[in-house]
Specification:
Elements (H helix, E strand, L loop, with lengths): L1 H32 L11 E12 L2 E7 L14 E7 L5 E6 L10 E7 L5 H8 L5 E8 L11 E7 L3 H12 L7 E8 L8 H10 L4 E7 L9 E2 L4 H7 L7 E6 L2 H13 L7 E3 L1
Parallel strand pairs: 7-8, 7-11, 8-9, 9-10, 11-12
Antiparallel strand pairs: 1-2, 1-6, 2-5, 3-4, 3-6
The structure holds flavin-adenine dinucleotide.
Flavin-adenine dinucleotide (FAD) binds next to strand 4, strand 5, helix 2 and helix 3.
């Protein structure tokens, strides 16, 4: 009887230990897998629009509040989020967007959105007023940024393709331990189409040895001293870092531009590893 009781006590201790180990392991996995910040990669979360600033006739900056004034969004640098809305016919639409803010901006995040007359998600943003909520899911994207992962980035952006470039550039320049140089070529149709121009010019002034920006316009105004037409092979050769294992060229623009840039880069000897398209 005594032997049976001591055996039983031993079994109970082992069972308790096993349950404790299982609970500890689950808790560890919960903590490590739990997304940091306010985003959830599996489900849409709603964020309140607290400020809408019209920047031009078809571009606006949208500021969304996070749950508390000290919350951070938690979007890794160079990644984007899926935003869900309704088009003019009331049908659901989901599109990717990159905030222009970083996790050093606490309590909120901002999107700079260009709204196209026929654009489906553009309609949703056009209709949004302060106090409305936007459904957001993320993070998304293959780009993984680490400080000093390359010696230099060349960036080829077109239109709204500037937002991921701006985010990566800000992260690099705001980190005093990051020595990466950034050479941006930014293409648009008209001068009014250039997004974040003031912010980009300020970065170029404040970090003259680490960041340069060259604007290219299809329809330049009189006296324009930037590039004219489309981004050319010569522009890339002159302004971007030459092919090397420790550089990378990032691309983000409308599909025809991305295609044209990929062909030029291949022609100039940039390997697949030396390029990334957002
Ligand atoms: C990684 C990533 C990040 C992005 N970040 C941003 C961002 O921060 N801000 C932002 O405004 N957009 C961003 N975009 C673009 C965004 O995802 C949508 O494609 C854009 O808002 C248009 O969607 P839509 O549904 O309104 O237009 P759609 O219904 O897809 O298009 C309707 C019409 O709009 C016009 N159109 C659409 N897109 C373009 C374009 N790029 N250039 C020229 N004409 C166009 C065309 O005439 C098209 O026929 C990003 C895209 C990617 C891939």
């Amino acid at each position: 009887m005594e032997l049976f009781q001591s055996h039983r006590a031993e079994m109970i201790s082992i069972a308790v230990a096993l349950v404790a180990i299982a609970a500890g392991t689950s808790y560890y996995y919960y903590l490590t897998k739990k997304p940091k910040g306010c985003l959830d990669p599996e489900s849409f979360k709603e964020f309140k629009l607290v400020k809408r600033t019209q920047l031009s006739h078809n571009v606006a900056k949208f500021r969304f509040s996070l749950p508390t004034p000290t919350s951070v969004l938690g979007l890794p640098i160079g990644q984007h989020m899926s935003c869900r809305g309704k088009d003019a016919l009331g049908e659901e639409v989901i599109k990717p967007y990159t905030p222009t803010t970083l996790d050093s901006d606490v309590g909120y995040f901002e999107l700079v959105i260009k709204m196209y007359p026929q654009g489906r998600m553009s309609h949703h943003f056009r209709e949004m007023s302060e106090g409305d909520y936007l459904a957001v899911k993320g993070p998304k994207g293959r780009f993984k940024y680490q400080p000093n992962q390359v010696r230099a980035f060349g960036m080829l952006a077109g239109g709204t393709g500037i937002t991921p470039m701006f985010q990566v550039t800000r992260a690099i320049l705001e980190d005093s331990d990051d020595k990466t140089n950034v050479h941006l070529i930014y293409a648009n149709v008209t001068h009014e189409d250039i997004l974040l121009k003031e912010e980009l010019d300020n970065l170029a002034t404040n970090f003259p040895n680490r960041f340069s920006v060259y604007y290219v316009l299809n329809q330049p105004p009189e006296g324009w001293d930037g590039g004219i037409g489309f981004v050319s092979k010569e522009m890339i050769q002159t302004l971007c870092p030459a092919p090397a294992p420790d550089i990378q060229i990032l691309r983000c623009g409308p599909p025809p531009m991305n295609k044209a840039m990929a062909a030029i880069l291949a022609d100039l000897g940039y390997t697949r590893e030396m390029q990334f398209q957002f």
